[in-house]
Amino acid sequence: MILFTSGIKQRLNQNRSIAVYGAVSIFCLILFIIYDRFSHNVRSPFMTYLFLWPLLLGVLPALLLRLFPGLPRPTYFTRNAYNSGVAAVTVSSLLRGIFEIAGTASLLQTGLMIAGFVMIGAGLISYVANALSAPSPD
User: What is residue 86's predicted lDDT score, i.e. its pLDDT?
Assistant: First the structure.
């Protein structure tokens, strides 16, 4: 019984992750379209491709975990570090796009991008370490 309910909860978490990251990707795409409409033809690739960060770093891994139930499940730390990293990289890309369009720059945005990739890396390292230390399902 415990394994059954735990499996349902994991699938629901993956479905929720796919839905949330998908909604964020759509929101970022709509934000770009609206911002581009009023930007006087000044564009930034960080703003143009903003929707790709949550799509590739969020939807794709969650979809892989959903499609391949044999993969190890991420721990709370892994999920929190990874999701925080994706959020930081997405916000940093948004800020960089706004700054480039405005013709300015900020070191804080660069620091946020680096911190985001560090958190993504920490989440991935944690996932691999937990997957290697987990007993085989034999």
Answer: 97
d(CA 135, CA 105): 48
**Whole-number mean pLDDT of the chain?**
88
Instruction: Decide: 52 and 8 in contact? Cβ < 8 Å.
Output: no
Give the DSSP per-residue string, the chain: -HHHHHHHHHHHHHHHHHHHHHHHHHHHHHHHHHHHHTTTT---HHHHTTTHHHIIIIIHHHHHHHH-TTSPPP-HHHHHHHHHHHHHHHHHHHHHHHHHHHT---HHHHHHHHHHHHHHHHHHHHHHHHHHHSPP--
Cα separation, 134 vs 72, in Å, equals 8
pLDDT digits (tens, 9 = 90+) for 55-91: 999 999 999 998 988 889 899 999 999 999 999 999 9
pTM of the complete model: 0.86
Query: Angle at the Cα of 21 (from 20 to 22), degrees rounded to 5?
Result: 90
